Amino acid sequence: MILDQQLIEKHNNKLEKKHNRAFEFISQDIDDVEELIAKLQKFQIGIPSWALGTGGTRFGRFSGPGEPGSLEQKFEDVGLLHALNKSSGAISLHIPWDIPEDTARMKELARSLNITFDAVNSNTFQDQPQQEDSYKYGSLHHVDPKVRKQAIDHNIEVINYGKALGSKALTVWLADGSSFPGQLNFREAFQNTLSSLQEIYKHLPEDWKLFIEYKAFEPYFYSMTIGDWGQSLLLANKLGPKAYTLVDLGHHLPNANIEQIVSLLLMEGKLGGFHFNDSKYADDDLTAGSIKPYQLFLIFNELIDGMDLNGMEHATGLGWMIDASHNLKDPLVDLLQSVEAIKIAYAQALLIDRVALKAAQQANDVVKSQEILQDAFRTDVRPLVAESRLRSGAALNPVLLFEEEKLRDKLITERGLRTIATGL
Ligand code: LRH
Ligand code: MN
Ligand code: MN
Predict the structure, then answer these.
(1) Does any ligand 1 atom lie closer than 6 A to the CB of residue 275?
(2) If you average pLDDT over every residue of the chain, what do you get?
(3) Is the CB of 98 inside a 6 Å radius of any atom of ligand 1?
(4) How far is the CA of 317 from the centre of ligand 1 (A)?
(5) Which domain of life is it from (predicted)?
């Protein structure tokens, strides 16, 4: 490991005085700061294996130096992130981009790095070299049962990999859709998708969840067969108790009220998990919280409200994951920034005076309701998040430590300059 605990301690010692002042200052105004810190310490956000290399756009890809060239190196990257922030203790694999051939060895490696396995993801949106049938016109919704069977079998294979590794969920994102009116019979496409998912569902172990991701557009531009949360929820309800809707923040039409969607899905007990990212226009996959931090905070407000009402544990009640793929920044630094932004939004939402908010809502006090929310949002909670890291043995400022210790240069020394990671 290119980072040892001593380096973290040296870094923390340097920053501790200033941090302690800031932490003491904010703590004075918080009723139960210990409880809040404990929640922050527990909160873990899964890292997708496809975000560890520099992402591309459909126009080009500019791979960075020292990228992970193997699955082992991807594990090492997540281990490094987790050592820096102690909040990224899980990896989510996308198969076949990442095939864990020797699952026993992979499990052992993950254990040694202190990371676990998040949801496994299937891929029926690209044709693979050995594949018999093409997904050009879709996969689980395809008009040809043979193509559907191929896609179903792939999902079962992914479940089997996940079982061997210790994952507890399968995430299905379909690129199925149509680009021209008349191309598809919507009802048949939906019914084919449902019956394919029913086949996959039969192979889910008892303690697993099936996450159904929706997306309003792209790669098809007229219709998507699972295009919004209504269609995902419909499928999840028809499939049964192990099926849930997964919300990817970038998969909505502009200005969609995602916090309202989240609140109703939680009410129905059908919110499964999250793919965090941010966007200005569409599925931009930018760093979480970099464009609309208030939206992220409002989402956490609804999450906490709904989870508390349902008696759900914040850290484990839902699947928390990042889904962002970058073409400008160092992917590791970017992931550190995303995790930080998510924890900041969570901490801010934990500060909301919920009793006062309820009273203001009941009294139709619009001004007060807004004041209560914005009071929490405008609080600088960074010392709380940093304190949670300090207590977990992580770095007070992970991005700074990454730069100071030139961790990418160390990875380049190990891996070389010209590296290309698998992924989007
Ligand atoms: C495409 C997408 C989707 C999946 C990921 C692998 O939009 O980003 O969100 O989860 O690819
Ligand atoms: Mn996603
Ligand atoms: Mn996406």
Answers:
(1) yes
(2) 96
(3) no
(4) 22
(5) Bacteria
CB of 252 sitting under 6 A from ligand 1? no
Residue 95: closest CA among 74, 121, 113? 121
Q: 377 C-alpha vs ligand 3 centroid, how far in Å?
A: 27
Predicted confidence at residue 184, as pLDDT, reads: 98
> Quick one: average pLDDT of 200-210?
98
Tell me the ipTM for this assembly: 0.98
**Residue nearest ligand 1's atom 8 by CA:** 323
Confidence of residue 55 (pLDDT cuts 50, 70, 90): confident
Q: Report CA(256)–ligand 1 centroid distance (Å).
A: 18
State whether the beta carbon of 213 lies less than 6 angstroms from ligand 1. yes
Q: Is the CB of 228 under 6 A from ligand 1?
A: no
Q: What share of the chain has pLDDT > 70, as a percent?
A: 99
Least confident of 121-135, 215-229, 405-419: 405-419
309, pLDDT greater than 70: yes
pLDDT band, very low/low/confident/very high, at 424 (cuts 50, 70, 90): low
